[in-house]
Amino acid sequence: MQDNHVLLTGGTGGLGLGVTPTVLAHKPALVTIPYTNAGNVERLKSILSVTDLDSIRFITGNLTDESAVENLVNEMERVDVLIHLVGGFSIGKTHEYPYEKWKADLELNLDLAFLVLKHSLRRMLEHGYGRIVTVGSRGAVQPGGQLAAYCAAKAGLVALTQAIADETKGTNITANIVLPSVIDTPSNRVAMNTENVAQWVKPDSLAQVICFLASEAALDMRGAVVPVYGNI
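The chain above was modelled as a monomer; its predicted structure follows.
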């Protein structure tokens, strides 16, 4: 990814704490990270070096608003790489699950991704190069009880990513998705039983897979659905 312009959504989140430093180690020209929570930005800055910070541009932005996403992408010099980390889950039995929460889950995990992928892909097509990496979930292919909305949204993200991979055949643009199981992030440690935390996927390990897919080395990988399950 050396000298690439990278759009890293979710770069200040729990997974971003592992992925962002790994992306920076690949010497991109500039990493653009949109955010809504200033506290998360400061948390990320605390683990980065001054040199790393020189390669990041933090921009406030609501990624559920198409005009905001369009402006964000248009303001970048180029979009060589999109790494889309944004996501989240909530738990509940399907017959008790509020429809409003269902819609919110799909907006966060699928609708928002569509907007970011749509406009990033448009810019990539303009200059004939791009690497798109999205983060799904093991639940997309092995759905679990009480996670219906999350699993449905992540299954949709797999389909969206693979559709883009098919649309971009014959170009130097690729789209692939990783499917982690439980990731060892601060929020997951709070929300879940940590008895088996040693077997969870480590963010920096997942980051290595993501960065490979975002690199020139993954030229011939298109529409891949890559399981990253740890020892679970």
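The two ends are 31 Å apart (CA to CA).
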